[in-house]
Amino acid sequence: MHHLALNTDDMKMPLAFYTRVLAMPLVHALKVPPGLGTGPGNRGNPPFENLRHYFLDAGGDSLLAFFEMPKGATPKADRNAVGTMQHVSFTVTENKFNEVFKNLKNANISCLGPINVGCDTWSIYFYDPNGIRLEFSHQKEAEPRVVKRWTQTKAEALAELRTLSQDPAWLETMVAHLPDSR
Hints:
Blueprint: E1 3-8, H1 12-21, E2 26-31, E3 52-59, E4 62-68, E5 88-91, H2 94-106, E6 112-118, E7 121-127, E8 133-138, H3 146-150, H4 154-161, H5 168-175
Parallel strand pairs: 1-4, 5-8
Antiparallel strand pairs: 2-3, 3-4, 6-7, 7-8
């Protein structure tokens, strides 16, 4: 992932939380140039002009970005509605996980976990100041290998996919790349 862009209406609030509590340093700060919000040059930016758009180092050579929306310009979203983002999960080393967990406790931020969420992956869940649900996960490896650890065999994936469709051609297309065994 290059970056995930989230919204806030108070840029200082997520900057304080993400840089201090989650230890994600700010790496780039800009204002979206005129014409890219409501003008003909819009390339998918929010429909407002001159928005702040700041980027944080999320680890794993990925960025987390925030757009600062004008206060009161848009309603707060329901994270469980169709077409919205339910939560963001970051994979980190075990050391970073423990640092963030300690920072959350020191900041009196309520969290769920650590819990084993499967595939020997440990997670904590909590909310940022904007109400965005976040998850931090770690595995025992020094360098996490999320895709490798979570890749199922064909049979494992088919057990669930058959609850969605019985079409043999579709099922084979969905699992053709998966291994037969571990």
